[in-house]
Task: structure prediction
Amino acid sequence: MKIIVVGAGIVGVSCAIWLQRDGHDVTLLDRNGPASGTSHGNAGVLAAGAVIPVTTPGIAARAPKMLLDRNAPLFLRWSYLPKLVPFLAKYLRFGTDAHVDHYATSMSALLHDTVDQHQRLAENTPAAAYISDDDYCFGYATEAEFRADAYSWQKRKAAGYTFDVHDGASFDPAFGPAFHTVVACHNHGRISDPGAYVAALAKHFVDQGGTLQLCEVQDIQMADNIITGLDTSDGPMQADHIVFAMGPWSKNIAHKLGVKVPFESERGYHLEFINPSVMPKSPMMVASGKFVLTPMDGRLRAAGVVEFGGLDSGPSRPPFEFLYRQVRKLLPDMTYDNVVEWMGHRPAPADSLPLIGANDPLGKSYSAFGHQHVGLTGGAKTGRIIADLIGDKKPNIDLAPFDPIKHSAR
Ligand SMILES: Cc1cc2nc3c(=O)[nH]c(=O)nc-3n(C[C@H](O)[C@H](O)[C@H](O)COP(=O)(O)OP(=O)(O)OC[C@H]3O[C@@H](n4cnc5c(N)ncnc54)[C@H](O)[C@@H]3O)c2cc1C
Result:
């Protein structure tokens, strides 16, 4: 069949490769090229156990205090607040224990085997060199901070994840005495250069005969509530099936398709220290700052925090300044050649559950977006699931929590 995949981030590239492996004629469209969106700048963690959403119980009370504290990892562009309110009202309603359990069960099925899924996606390609097995660590500056996170650790344990609790002072010499406690999660992984990894996968897709076309999807054509084609900057296009994997830019087209999911960008930031004098042994989530320090090829990346401010405005200074302060505090003696600053958009549905599946009863078009903080982790498997659905093979996972049609009803 002829299949168009829109969006060449980790999710779209994985969809394209698995569909190609199933023998389809696949065209991958992106307005700026592979890994030009969020998949370029993330923290590179294959976070198998990241099964706790941002919206945990008590978030509605915590969030306003965090917004007023310059040393808290939550930011808002205040001018964006009026546009944000309808989303926020829905988002905060998911901060319940029942939703955390539902999310953990659903996402565990998508994320638990992430390293294996990435190894299969990249098998026999140059992209495989970017993948490694790694622990994913969480560093707490004080015992009180660690205790305050007890809820998340109980939930991870209940979901079947294993971890060890270490004395922070002796865990990794890179951090000296900065941490009181470090929790090391096993069977996780790391991508040593997320942008180069996705670009290498896209190159493999092209080398195997796939078409990569740089153009923008501007609109869709519909008849009887079912998509019939795309309007693009290269003209109209048609296919037997169309997969939408436009990450944070998915909302408008999804809504036109009838997938009316409440959806926002959770903006995130990174600082990259080039040729640093210090390199941690594994990715370290700095718990108080909600950012990860990840060793990468020739550089140390500090990536994370959340800012609400929409898709259209450029980066803000306070999140960068926050990251600079945090890194200086943790690694006061680190030297480096220079710093690269980056801001990107996490694609976030209000219930934090990605949309994976058919948008209409005939399966003419598919959604594959909304992976918020864990799109690198879940992207490889999502591509495989989409290829299975289009190929009428039943994926070995409960897809009901990700069903685009059911999402719209929430
Ligand atoms: C600071 C930060 C740290 C993160 N750390 C991690 C991590 O450690 N582990 C993890 O698993 N996840 C992490 N994430 C989340 C992860 O990066 C995202 O969930 C993931 O990259 C989303 O991938 P995607 O393919 O859905 O979207 P994207 O990578 O954004 O790709 C979407 C593509 O669609 C294209 N596009 C959009 N609109 C159109 C259009 N109209 N026409 C044509 N093309 C279009 C864009 O150009 C883009 O290339 C992090 C995110 C941030 C911001």
